[in-house]
Write a structure and sequence with these properties.
Layout lengths: L15 E5 L31 H13 L4 E5 L9 H9 L6 E6 L4 H11 L3 E5 L5 H7 L6 H13 L6 E6 L8 H11 L2 E6 L17 H11 L2 E3 L10 E5 L5 E5 L12 E4 L4 E3 L8 E2 L1 H4 L3 H13 L5 H7 L14 H4 L2
Parallel strand pairs: 1-2, 1-10, 2-3, 3-4, 4-5, 5-6, 6-9
Antiparallel strand pairs: 7-8, 8-9, 10-11, 11-12
Amino acid sequence: MTESIPRDALGRPLRDLRLSVIEACNFRCPYCMPADRIGDDHGMDAAARLSFDEIETLVRGFVQLGVRKLRLTGGEPLLRKRLPELVRRLAAIDGLEDLALTTNGSLLAAHAQALRDAGLRRITVSLDTLDPALFRDLSGGRGDLAGVLSGIAAAKAAGFAPIKLNCVLQRGVNEDGIVALATYAREHGHVLRFIEYMDVGTCNGWSRERVVPSIEVRDRLHAHWPLQPLDPNYRGEVAARHAYVDGAGEVGFVSSVSAPFCGDCHRARVSADGQLYTCLFAGAGHALRSLLVQGEDALASHVASLWEQRTDRYSETRRLEAGSEGGASRRHVEMYLIGG
């Protein structure tokens, strides 16, 4: 394997890949896959999804280009049949240093140990509230909070530590649960990330008024438990991390709306059917599936040429659009297709 690291038009390398293994989900979270807009018949035929062989070839090609971190997403990735088998194949790829998965946690209790045994290194669980009734509402009437908490506990028992919890905050919806979520994370040794509500996709009814700025969340937590900022673990780290002064772990803030971080973005996203998206807010993808039959070298060469043309910096552009809805009218790929 010969590594050749491409840089985009703004000098950003390609380091992270977020790969959707399935577009289907058993939840209908309003900010991603609202039930009134996306029915149960929305999904693609199973044959349209990349096979395990195609996925392995694709990941090997991306590793040639410098990708060291791979995150499996969905939809809900645990709906993909035989997922631990895929994890085992990907974990064996030379040069891939980090293999993670993001899940809604509803199926995690049944799969956590198998995923750990297969070589999965990290797990992130989406958890927007600890209120059972609100949780069910925020999952489109389909989620059970107790089952998700059991999944998190099973993942911890399987050896995943720390587990990362992602909370998307919305003004007037779940902001009252900030302290409760932080308390839970502190008590169980999890790492909590508060994410500003973003205009990903076109079906979630996004408006700037529903964004809870990270600085407001940080100040609210600091009033309960003093915080101190931490240095980034690496250039381009998405979350601004803070440690609890009392030693009870850390909390992070992802501020794509109030403090965009496009300048250091080195992430690519691939949908379950093999479309490459060079930005979370992209309006169109680049088909990769036809390249996979030619092997990882051909795939790497093609992706490098696409990456070198990349100019994406949507969140920064949105912020500059004073007085507008920040691009909410522009068509974006739906979040459930690329896993956020």
